[in-house]
Amino acid sequence: MAANGISTYNAGSTNAKQQRQIRKLEIAEAKRQGKTVTATGSGYTITGALNVTKSYYRVLCYSFIGRLPTRWHANGSLVNQGNAPDPPGPDTATLHPGRPWKTAP
């Protein structure tokens, strides 16, 4: 992952893990949408539009970080969100099929 700059991004910063988690989701989302992701010297570029003809396109192609059961906080700590439903409601024990992915932005 050093080729796309994720493993070394913001190293030493308190929010480095949060930023890396967000970048990984951005890359995964672009690939699921059939876009092209190219590693550059210090990061990556995403080109193209939604393309359902690509072999790596997925119907669940939009990420929503709020659907992750655990995510990194800006201060470097883990935030355990449990199994919070989307949208929030009375059923807090529901896991989302395909989380953190959904079919619409």
Features:
105 residues, alpha+beta, two-stranded antiparallel sheet, two-stranded antiparallel ribbon, 1 helix, 6 strands, 16% helix, flat
Structure description:
- There is one protein chain.
- The chain has one helix at 16-32, and strands at 36-39, 44-47, 62-63, 70-72, 78-80, 101-102.
- The protein is α+β, with helices and mostly antiparallel strands and 105 residues long.
- It has one domain (2-102).
- The strands form three sheets. The protein has a two-stranded antiparallel ribbon with strand order 1-2.
- The radius of gyration is 15 Å and the shape is flat.
- It starts with 15 loop residues before the first helix and ends with a strand.
- The mean pLDDT is 77.
How many extended strands? 6
How many structural domains does the protein architecture include?
1
Poorly predicted regions: none
Query: Ends: how far apart?
Result: 27 Å
Percent in strands: 15-25%
- By DSSP (H or I, 4+ residues per run), the number of helices equals 1
Instruction: Give the class from helix and strand content and strand pairing.
Output: alpha+beta
| Shape label | flat
The percentage helix is 10-25%
The rounded Rg comes to 15 Å
Largest sheet: 2 strands, antiparallel
Task: Please trace the helix and strand order, writing H or E for each element.
Answer: HEEEEEE
Main sheet: strand order: 1-2
Mean pLDDT: 77
